[in-house]
Design goal:
globular
C-alpha cells in the first residue's frame, strides 16, 4: 500500500465513519478502485484507521467521556457492547463471507438508504435528551441494533445504533452521541481482534499454510507474535502508512463529528438516505459492468 493510497482511504474513513452511510461499504469499494489488494495488512489497516477516527470522539467529548464521577456511563457502554462481542465471535465465518461479497454490501447499502428516507417519521415523539435517562435495558437494545451492522456489512454501525437509540425514545442528537460513545469500546475490541487476525494470517502466508490447512494445525501463541512475523507485517512502509493514515483519519473525523451533530439539529436523515440509494445503485452498476471485481 502506497502513502497516497493510505491517505485517500483514511480521508474516506474519516468522512464516513460517523455519518450513517457505512464506512465499511466505502472502504470495500474504494480499495479495488485504488488497486489495493486484500492482504492481512490491508485488512488490519482498515480497522486501525476506523479506531483512529473514532478516537476523535474522545477529544470532542472529553469532558463527558473522561468523567469518572459517573461510573454508570461506562457501565452502559459495557452493557451495549456485549452483544457485538458475543455475536462477532460466534458468527465470524458469516461476517467474513459477507465482507468479501461486494454485491451483498451494495444491496444492504441501498436497502439502508430506503429505511433512512422514512426514519424521521417513525420517531416523532422522542423526548429522552439526557444520557442519565438512558437505562441499562435501553443500552442493551441499542447494542443489539449494533449487531445488525456486523451481520449486514454496508448497513452502517452509526446508522444502526442511532436508529436503535431513537427506537428507545432518544432524541436524534442524543442517539447520535451515544452511538459515538459506543463506537470507542466497540472499535477498540475490533482493533485488538484485527491485530491478532493479521498476525495469524501473515504467519500462515509466510509459511505457505492455507486457511483450510490451518484449521487442523495447532499454532502456538508465541510463534504468531514472534519478532520475525511482526517485523514482516509491520515493516517500515507499513508503519508509515499506519501512522499517516491514523492521523489523517483522526483529523477528518473530528470535522465529520461536529458536522453531523450540527446537521442533525436542523435536519433529519433523508439526505443520507438518498445518498445511500444513489451510491448503492452505482455500486451495483460497477459490479455488473465488471469495473469493480
Amino acid at each position: 500500500m502506497s502513502i497516497i493510497q493510505a491517505i485517500i482511504l483514511s480521508i474516506v474513513e474519516g468522512i464516513t465513519e460517523f455519518l450513517p452511510i457505512s464506512s465499511t461499504a466505502h472502504l470495500k469499494f474504494t480499495n479495488p478502485l485504488l488497486g489495493v489488494t486484500e492482504t492481512p495488512f490491508s485488512n488490519m489497516f482498515e480497522v486501525v484507521i476506523q479506531l483512529a477516527a473514532i478516537l476523535s470522539v474522545v477529544v470532542v467529548y472529553w469532558k463527558r467521556f473522561i468523567n469518572f464521577k459517573h461510573i454508570s456511563f461506562y457501565l452502559k457502554l459495557v452493557v451495549a457492547v456485549i452483544p457485538a462481542l458475543v455475536f462477532g465471535a460466534l458468527l465470524k465465518k458469516h461476517i467474513d463471507a459477507s465482507l468479501s461479497n461486494l454485491t451483498f454490501i451494495a444491496c444492504v447499502m441501498l436497502g439502508g438508504g430506503i429505511i433512512l428516507l422514512f426514519i424521521d417519521s417513525f420517531f416523532k415523539t422522542n423526548n429522552i435528551n439526557e444520557e442519565e435517562k438512558i437505562s441499562y435495558p435501553k443500552a442493551l437494545v441499542i447494542g443489539f441494533f449494533q449487531v445488525l451492522s456486523i451481520l449486514l456489512p454496508g448497513l452502517s454501525r452509526s446508522a444502526a445504533t442511532i436508529i436503535g437509540g431513537m427506537s428507545q425514545k432518544l432524541t436524534r442528537n442524543l442517539a447520535a452521541e451515544f452511538s459515538f460513545f459506543l463506537a470507542v469500546p466497540t472499535m477498540l475490541a475490533a482493533s485488538i481482534k484485527s491485530f491478532w487476525d493479521a498476525c495469524r494470517e501473515n504467519y500462515l502466508l509466510q509459511h505457505g499454510i492455507t486457511k483450510e490447512q490451518a484449521e487442523g494445525v495447532h499454532i502456538k501463541f508465541g510463534e504468531i507474535l514472534n519478532g520475525e512475523n511482526l517485523h514482516t507485517l509491520f515493516n517500515h512502509d507499513n508503519l508509515i502508512a499506519i501512522i499517516i493514515g491514523g492521523v489523517v483519519s483522526f483529523v477528518v473525523a473530528l470535522i465529520a463529528v461536529k458536522f453531523l451533530i450540527s446537521y442533525l439539529q436542523k435536519h433529519g436523515f433523508k439526505a443520507f438516505g438518498w445518498y445511500r440509494i444513489g451510491l448503492g445503485a452505482l455500486m451495483l452498476v460497477l459490479i455488473f459492468t465488471k469495473v469493480v471485481a
